[in-house]
């Protein structure tokens, strides 16, 4: 597996953890702000929802995406359903489609940290660095303990070769294996030879107990 695929997989896993689901009831007339999985209003709907969830959890993402879009036609105002579709597009590398979904979610629920964070990551993958930074900062304001937007923020600063701000962003989160995979992104190539950054990462490696 290439570094890029590994990074996308780890990012997707983090997003899945953030949106781990509780069982909720869908209402086709009113937006539902709770995470999926869903319970529909008919057994026919529930059968399709279960099939979509099974496809998603077993990694059959194109099939899951098709089914979720069909469900979305029935429940167009359910925001967690939009979020699931955005997540699948993100995992499939369909970043333009993911951007469209997450921009719509942020417009409808601007105070949702997860939607802002997911949009920031999507924009980072599209190399729209200024907008990625804006939504990462908004996500941090809404939920300061979420690590993902700090990683996005650090990647943008790395692309700008601002080592001090990269270190400041990384200092806000606990060192983890995810962090060490994230810095394999191309944005960090601009600062990989910085002695200050090397020293910081060496310290982070010691804290995490990871051999590099």
Beta-strand content estimate: under 5%
Quote the CATH topology of the largest domain: Serine Threonine Protein Phosphatase 5, Tetratricopeptide repeat
Distance between the termini: 19 Å
What is the tally of helical segments?
A: 11
Largest sheet: 2 strands, parallel
Name of the CATH class of the largest domain: Mainly Alpha
Multimeric status of the protein: single chain
The helix/strand order is HEEHHHHHHHHHH
Domains (count): 2
Residue share in helix = 55-70%
Shape: elongated
Q: How do the strands of the widest beta sheet line up side by side?
A: 1-2
Tell me what you see in this structure.
The protein has 212 residues and is mainly α. It has 2 domains: 1-126, Alpha Horseshoe (Serine Threonine Protein Phosphatase 5, Tetratricopeptide repeat), CATH 1.25.40; 147-212. The protein has 11 helices and 2 strands. It has helices at residues 3-18, 43-57, 61-74, 79-91, 95-108, 113-125, 129-142, 148-159, 163-170, 177-182, 195-208, and strands at residues 24-25, 38-39. It has a two-stranded parallel sheet. The longest helix is centred in the first third of the chain and has 16 residues, at 3-18.
Q: Could you write a compact summary of the structure shown?
A:
The protein has 212 residues and is mostly helical. The protein contains eleven helices and two strands; from the N terminus they run H-E-E-H-H-H-H-H-H-H-H-H-H. The protein has a two-stranded parallel ribbon.
Give the tags.
elongated; 2% strand; 2 strands; single chain; Serine Threonine Protein Phosphatase 5, Tetratricopeptide repeat; 212 residues; 11 helices; 2 domains; mainly alpha; two-stranded parallel ribbon
């Amino acid at each position: 597996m290439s570094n890029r695929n590994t990074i996308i997989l780890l990012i997707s896993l983090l997003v899945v953890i953030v949106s781990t689901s509780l069982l909720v009831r869908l209402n086709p007339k009113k937006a539902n702000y709770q995470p999926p999985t869903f319970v529909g209003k008919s057994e026919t709907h529930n059968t399709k929802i279960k099939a979509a969830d099974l496809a998603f959890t077993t990694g059959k993402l194109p099939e899951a995406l098709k089914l979720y879009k069909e469900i979305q036609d029935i429940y167009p105002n359910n925001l967690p359903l939009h979020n699931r579709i955005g997540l699948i597009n993100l995992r499939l590398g369909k970043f333009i489609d993911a951007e469209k979904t997450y921009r719509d979610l942020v417009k409808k629920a601007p105070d949702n940290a997860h939607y802002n964070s997911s949009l920031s990551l999507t924009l980072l993958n599209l190399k729209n660095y200024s907008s990625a930074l804006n939504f990462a900062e908004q996500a941090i304001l809404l939920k300061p303990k979420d690590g993902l937007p700090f990683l996005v923020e650090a990647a943008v600063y790395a692309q700008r070769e601002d080592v001090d701000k990269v270190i400041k962003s990384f200092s806000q989160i606990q060192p983890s294996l995810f962090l060490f995979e994230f810095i394999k992104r191309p944005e960090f190539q601009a600062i990989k030879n910085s002695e200050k950054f090397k020293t910081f990462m060496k310290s982070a490696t010691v804290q995490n107990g990871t051999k590099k």
